[in-house]
Amino acid sequence: MRKGVMRPGHVQIRVLDLEEALVHYRDRLGLIEVGRDDHNRAYLKAWTEIDRFSVVLRQAEEPGMDFMGFKVTGPDVLQQRKQELIDYGCVVETIPAGELDGCGERVRFDSPTGHFFELYAEKEQTGKWGISERNPEAWPEALKGMRATRFDHCLLYGEDIDGTSALLQQVLGFQLSEQVLDRDNGDLRVAAFLACSMKAHDVALVRHPENGKFHHASFYLETWSDVLRAADLISMHDIPLDIGPTRHGLTHGQTIYFFDPSGNRNEVFTGGDYTYPDHPVVTWDAEQLGKAIFYHHRQLNENFLGVVT
């Protein structure tokens, strides 16, 4: 049951050198820099997004993710979900409006995998970048790099993925769209893909002995040709490549993975499945994990599985 959570709204990523990171996210990935604040943070958005920002880069001593935020349909829904999170047993913090530039009050909560999530209802709307809301052109001519169209999802690593999956489903109304089960270990769930929208997933979880780990932030491109163009840019600018271009078996998206200068993994992808409330859960067996992750190669990339921040 949907409970008023619309979509991923932002992610705050820790980077070691803010200026170096901005070259990567702005000039290579193609996000739009929209501002900076007094807390050593830079704000960016993809060109189709109507809200002021979707990515916050914070200079820090180690890379990783601080939190991931989801936008809800209104202030009343925000307060309802806040109380339900408290009743569920989460540690909940209310962050005042303006702590992130242009963002309203946020409700931050912990999770069994050690990740912090946020809900918010209000954020300044600046519209799609470079085109008008009336009689808009197809796309802005001034786009850079890979021309990312939106922040799409995050993949997070932690031990109790069943606990975080249950929290997201029971309190926030997420739907389990796809999973990986280990038949040799009592159908232990080793990966869960959850959606709050019609997308294949809005957040994904993989079982890992260390909590609070960040695997990647993902950005959507329009076409397979754009993914191939991203591969060209990765080579042109000597960006560390993880794997791709290739196709996933899970979600069937067409993808490439690479790293920012701080070691945080990024994905750009296109295509993929969609999720309606009446769709059954798609299940992969762990013994087919190579094909599930890299449909063409059908082999696991240990770097892909093991490198997290």
From TrEMBL:
GO terms for molecular function: catechol 2,3-dioxygenase activity; ferrous iron binding. NCBIfam families: catechol_2_3. CDD domains: 2_3_CTD_C (cd07243). Residues 7-122, 150-271 form the VOC domain. Homotetramer. This is Metapyrocatechase. Belongs to the extradiol ring-cleavage dioxygenase family. The keyword Membrane does not apply. It catalyses: catechol + O2 = (2Z,4E)-2-hydroxy-6-oxohexa-2,4-dienoate + H(+). Pfam families: Diox-like_N, Glyoxalase. It comes from the Bacteria. Its EC number is 1.13.11.2. Its cofactor is Fe(2+). SUPFAM superfamilies: Glyoxalase/Bleomycin resistance protein/Dihydroxybiphenyl dioxygenase. It is an enzyme of class 1 (oxidoreductase). InterPro entries: Catechol_2-3_dOase (IPR017624), Glyas_Bleomycin-R_OHBP_Dase (IPR029068), Glyas_Fos-R_dOase_dom (IPR004360), VOC_core (IPR037523), Xdiol_ring_cleave_dOase_1/2 (IPR000486), XylE-like_N (IPR054560). Keywords: Aromatic hydrocarbons catabolism, Dioxygenase, Iron, Metal-binding, Oxidoreductase, Repeat.
